[in-house]
Amino acid sequence: MDAFAYCSKYGKENYDEYRRRYRLKTDDENGSLKDRYDVEFERKQAKDVIHVITATLKSKGLETPFLILPFRPSQSDQALKDFLNLIFKQGGELLDADHIETVAEQQNEATAMPPGGQTNRLPKQLQQILKNNVYPPSPTSTVASSQYMQEIPKVTLRVNHPSRNPAELLSRVSRTLKFDNPTLFYTREDFLLLKRLFKNQDAIMDKLSPEGCRIMDNVCLYDEDLVSDGSSRGNHIRFKLAAGWSHDMTSQLSTKKSHAPDFFTADVSRASIDDYFIWAWMASLGNEETSIKKKTFGKTYIMEAQLAEGFKKWVIVEEQDFERDKYDLELEIKQEKLKTLETKIQSAQKRATTLMIKSSPARNDLYDITNHTDSQKVLPPPPPKKDYDKAPLPLEKDYNMSRNVSRGSRKAPPQDSAEVESARQYGETVQMEIPVEGKGPIRAEIPVGGNSEGMYIPYGGVNYVARLAHEQPIQIDYREKSQSPKRYSRSPLGQQLVEPVSRGISPVRDDKSAAPSRTSNVRHPCLNSGNSIPILGFGVFQIPENDTSSLVEKALEVGYRHFDSAMDYENEAGTCDGIAKWIAQDPINNKREDVFYTTKIFDHNQGYEKTKQAIKDCLAKAKPIGYIDMILIHSPRTNYEKRHGSWIALQEAVEEKGVRNIGVSNYGIKHLEELLGYPDLKIVPAVNQVELSPWLMRQELVDYCKEKGINVEAFSPLTRGFHLGDKDLNKVASKHGKSAAQILIKWSMTKGLIPLPKTVNESRLAANFDVFDFQLTDDDLKLIEHKGAYGIISERWDPSTYPLDSEK
Ligand SMILES: NC(=O)C1=CN([C@@H]2O[C@H](COP(=O)(O)OP(=O)(O)OC[C@H]3O[C@@H](n4cnc5c(N)ncnc54)[C@H](OP(=O)(O)O)[C@@H]3O)[C@@H](O)[C@H]2O)C=CC1
Ligand SMILES: O=C1Nc2ccccc2C1=O
């Protein structure tokens, strides 16, 4: 998402106005503060409480004497009971009021024990629920609470001077976001919501729900709110219990406040959140979070707006400090200028090349994208001259081969010198000329790309270089301990792979085309590029960058050989790092060429120039693994010129090596037709990655792709958990002694699709790969499939219907 920037003179801005408004809501009729939630927790204590609660719930759910909810203290007992009944979705009354405590009611208690040390046990029914669910549920997990999971807009504000409280933060967001271009937002709905909330600075507070006001009430600190902690040093400011507003970050920075003008930029993205965001909030305090998140911990405000009676909306607003990230504003401005210059040079070079090409009679059929401006409408392209070669049919021997292949027996292929060359090209640093005042240009080595030490240049911007501070992890392990069977652990040569292969792959239907590779997994030898692709991939969307590397490494140990990332997922570096580490474990047997790594270029990087740069950025992040197996255009949500420009850039990337296959994602038939009609088309997409499940079979699109030799990848193959409870699906699952998730993965493969399930859970990681020892029958398929249904999981993410230019 593009950034919006605002720069003001240093000053109080409209802060006083917010204060006034805020007071209106919190003062009583007599003008004195009515602070009903006057419970003081130091930030750290609150954090500790949450950690203890989470850890206790996870480790001994059954023995937890009380269920303690760290949020929403304004709720009545009845409301809490309703809430719990909804979360656990068991119906009926679950709890006595006695069994519920809220953190806010725990006066400075940093433990999860109920007052008075009672040790009442939870009612049986709740004990069962605790036993059978994972706590805290991830926003996308399948436990009952997650049926309310939704994606909401997230605004990230980067500032040089910290906001003093969320009210000021909201005011800054309002001054920063621009609403003149709806297409810069993920969805029109985000655009409309954010516009409604932030267009008018003065009206933001009026849009808060009563709960939103209560939270705001608790996190805004004014002079009058100073609370004595009784220490001899006199008044000591303590923050009230507040979700996500860091005391120490704010105070630390405010002491250093310089006189530089305020500067802030805002990014709009999206986040998945449970409707009852309590768990998500808890998770954000946990060990699982990335170090970036930890750094910004305490600077997140979840805004609950009420736009009409009963119509609530949430927006996450988070603040990051440039200063804390050692952000160098000067450097950024200089690099920004340099980038503009580079872009200009590149366009000039491109124009010059195009002119040369145009004057050459042999090349006069080349399509010159640089010639098209808004005033020069692009004519509809002619249809492609020939039908593209269908994917070569898989041979029977390809998949029989598996049984005899021993991992060490194949000779290493000859080294591809071009590949080595391209790997060398993307060094850890790039040389840049940076204009420095008074000194003229200096040549500097700028580190690029991600590595395990956290050196990176954020994608899309190439704006600043940040070294992430190493933070001491909190010593509570929230993750479930791996329940992977021994065979999946790091094992001697081939051991971990013996199981899936020796169980035999007897695919039915299109699954026939799968041929096992020498190392694991099955391969799908029919990309139209001539390359093969492992039929089952691991999707890494929403896996925090810091966790990605180890998860990918574990996935490789389990047998996965195919990873699906994207620039937008912000974990490409982690993915590549995991692959590289796995190769380093056993370089003789763990071969790069056995792994398939995909990334995607998001909408804001479409267009020839931007995609060229984005490809470079992707390659830089893929440096530890030398090359990229496939780059996809993430979605068609731009226009003809941009889509076309991107495709040309991708075609060039294949020619220049470094990228082996290219494809698209979320393309509908009309977008594919448009692409196949490019007059300068040289490469037909290897794949189209779209959402697919038995509730969204998209038969027409799948048939069309097959006819054109385009493989189809299935994203959200587990329907993000939404249908895992389906009765018929579970019937088939019990028949095969498999889980509903395994049946869905098998369904994709049986249909000739390439599923990309995601999980952060190690035992599910192994289970999701354990799908090669059974077959689905016609009757199974009949029972599972909902032909003609159009069950998109997230209504807000269906770019395959995005209008062509002619439909706009
Ligand atoms: N091109 C595009 O536009 C898109 C691409 N994708 C790709 O597809 C991948 C997968 O899609 P995604 O949307 O994540 O959805 P999935 O259908 O893969 O579902 C993931 C969810 O299912 C849960 N889960 C995983 N395994 C199991 C299991 N065995 N039993 C129960 N629950 C399970 C996960 O929870 P947990 O992690 O806690 O296990 C997570 O909540 C993405 O990672 C991405 O690579 C996805 C969406 C759009
Ligand atoms: O994996 C993805 N999930 C998404 C949700 C919204 C927009 C893009 C994506 C992905 O690419």
Automatic annotation (TrEMBL):
The keyword Coiled coil applies. Residues 542-786 form the NADP-dependent oxidoreductase domain. Keywords: Coiled coil, Oxidoreductase. One of its GO terms (molecular function) is 2-dehydropantolactone reductase (A-specific) activity. InterPro entries: AKR, Aldo/ket_reductase_CS, Msb1/Mug8_dom, NAD(P)_OxRdtase_dom_sf, NADP_OxRdtase_dom. It catalyses: isatin + NADPH + H(+) = 3-hydroxyindolin-2-one + NADP(+); (R)-pantolactone + NADP(+) = 2-dehydropantolactone + NADPH + H(+). Its EC number is 1.1.1.358. Residues 324-358 form a coiled coil. GO terms for biological process: ketone metabolic process. Residues 384-400 have a biased composition (Basic and acidic residues). Residues 366-426, 502-523 are annotated as: Disordered. Residues 40-102, 118-320 form the Meiotically up-regulated protein Msb1/Mug8 domain. It is an enzyme of class 1 (oxidoreductase). It comes from the Eukaryota. Gene3D superfamilies: NADP-dependent oxidoreductase domain (3.20.20.100). PANTHER family: 2,5-DIKETO-D-GLUCONIC ACID REDUCTASE (PTHR43827), ALDO_KETO REDUCTASE FAMILY PROTEIN (PTHR43827:SF13). This is 2-dehydropantolactone reductase. The lineage of its organism: Eukaryota, Fungi, Dikarya, Ascomycota, Saccharomycotina.
